[in-house]
Description:
Number of strands of chain B: 0
Order of helices and strands of chain A: EEEHEEHEHHHEHEHEEHHEEEEEEEEEE
Oligomer: heterodimer
CATH superfamily of the largest domain in chain A: P-loop containing nucleotide triphosphate hydrolases
Shape of chain B: globular
Helix content of chain A: 10-25%
Structural class of chain B: mainly alpha
Number of helices of chain A: 9
Strand order of the largest sheet of chain A: 6-7-8-3-9-10
Number of helices of chain B: 16
Shape of chain A: elongated
Distance between the termini of chain B: 30 Å
CATH class of the largest domain in chain B: Mainly Alpha
CATH topology of the largest domain in chain A: Rossmann fold
Largest sheet of chain A: 6 strands, mixed
CATH class of the largest domain in chain A: Alpha Beta
Number of strands of chain A: 20
Structural class of chain A: alpha+beta
Amino acid sequence: MGTVAAHGLRKSFGEVQALDGVTLDVPDGSFYVVLGPSGAGKTTTLRAIAGLEQLDEGSVHLDGRDATADTPAARDLAMVFQSYALYPRKTAYENIASPLRARRASSTEISEAVTKVSGLLHIERLLQRRPAQMSGGEMQRVALARALVRRPRAFLMDEPLTNLDLKLRVEMRTELTRIHRSLGGTFVYVTNDQVEALSMADRVAVLREGKVQQVGTPTEVYERPANQWVAGFVGSPRISLLACRAEGDRLVGEQGWTLPRPRWTTARDGHPLMLGLRAEDLSVETRSEASLPGELYGLEPLGDRTVVDVKVGEEMVKVKARPAVSGTPGERLSVAVDLDRAHLFDAETGLALSAPGR
Amino acid sequence: MAISIDEAVPAPAQAAEDAPAGRRRGGTARRVIEVVLLVALAVAMLFPVLWMLETSIKENRDVYAVPAKFFNFDFTTIHYKDVFVGRDGGRSDLSGSFLNSVIVAGASTILATVLGVPAAWAYSRFTLKAKKDQLFFILSTRFMPPVVVVIPIFLMYRELGLIDSKLGLVLIYAAFNVPFTIWMMKGFVDEVPAEYEDAAMLDGYTRLQAFRKFTLPLLVPGIAATAVFALIFSWNEFVFAIFLTSSQEVRTAPPAIAGLIGGTTVDWGLVAASAVVFALPVLVFAFLVRKHLVAGVTLGAVRR
């Protein structure tokens, strides 16, 4: 139904370079998530695709045709805004009907389409209300309905779940995935929530300071982060990063520990590296040849698991453990490392060292 | 402007009544002084208005009575009749001036609103080069008092043939009201999220349609408030009116009323009655849109 391609988008607001050469290729029918912290340029990217932002450089192609100079109306896209942007004087029905009215649909067509989409989103009983008479979750559904009432080339969603409470957010996540599966269509979805990105996306583009850091499936981004920053941004609890260098067949840590050197490490001896270890690849309960000496700093019980904070020299390592784990702060312990799942980054460039076969 | 006096009086009086508990504890003596001072101020402010009202309904011999008659005067409506009906029984000159005032004030307000509102929208929504400087320049045209620029404008108008024409007055009042409209309306437009227009454009409307159909309806209270202020300025304006017009057919009410004073005898009853008639439309209009006026004055004071 629609492909969206953005090439070399550049945009500055005064001194701030919001977009610094953003390139995205959104395949037809995919759920494409643009993930990044606030200020990364996600919203600007989306607004540029929508035609709401004048670009300094770069082009936007829709269905393979250059649409850079097109007006928002001519681009045939639908967008859900973070603030929902529901028209305050109009009822939910009129809000949802607006895209059809703008395109001069007949009133029977409009009423059919609105009925259908409100059924899909379970908002039939809200149709005669105005935005002021709705809760945040209800407004969010109406905003979604206004986008889904038509079959545009692509749906653009700007952090649509950010303003909802946690329970609703989880609910709507499932709902959106269901809608995408049942309606089809291309979704470009912007969020700063990595859980949303990992759980909903077909493909994720990670954005930072106006630059794309990595594009891939959620698994690829999580398992094979392209650089140290992506590794740190994606994943909860945060990946633990330890400064070290390769020496012969050992990895020697700045904090005095040594680990066997993974065979795939290509780094020169003595070159500064960062060892990235995810909490689930570490253990305080098993013994291993590859282990880090440390002392217990604190426990974070999270119900289904407990995150153990271990101090290795001056650096902190987070370890995922069974909920029943116990210990007293200051206690000496050793952290078993699954080196096959460890990440190594060049400490100077931040780039991941290639791991053949992974 | 007349409105500033009207607003200045009730405001402090109300503040005294609604004094917070903390100030009440300061002692009744202080409160008594406050009330006495405010009453004295109110009397001083309102006495001329009261005197004007009274003079307009007194028989002529009571108007000139010495000592002045406050209460036991003879009531008459003859002065009000004189405002509208001429000595020959036809329309009076003054009624023509009032009509001129209505036309000039109305047309200049409409012109200023039609030009100013879209300009305010543009200044609010678009990134422009040196936007702040432009806005300051626009405002700076209001810095100069009319009397300073009236001579050059008189000379220009003479060249253009705009002297002693209603069109000339409409244009000069609009020129003074457009900067005011832009500044006041920009505040109102800023309050309306730009995302409504973004959403409308994605719905398939053009930028102008998005403004007209989605933003403009939300601006109506602001436009009403701004238009009333512009109307009051044009209605009350005296300096340009007296310098740029001379004939009875063009003259607006302020110079016409002023012209009543200065003969060998002054018909104070007629002066008072025409002043009352002159003040009424503004008061009625301001009363009708008072909610919007307050919104206009307190704009930005409260974050919603």
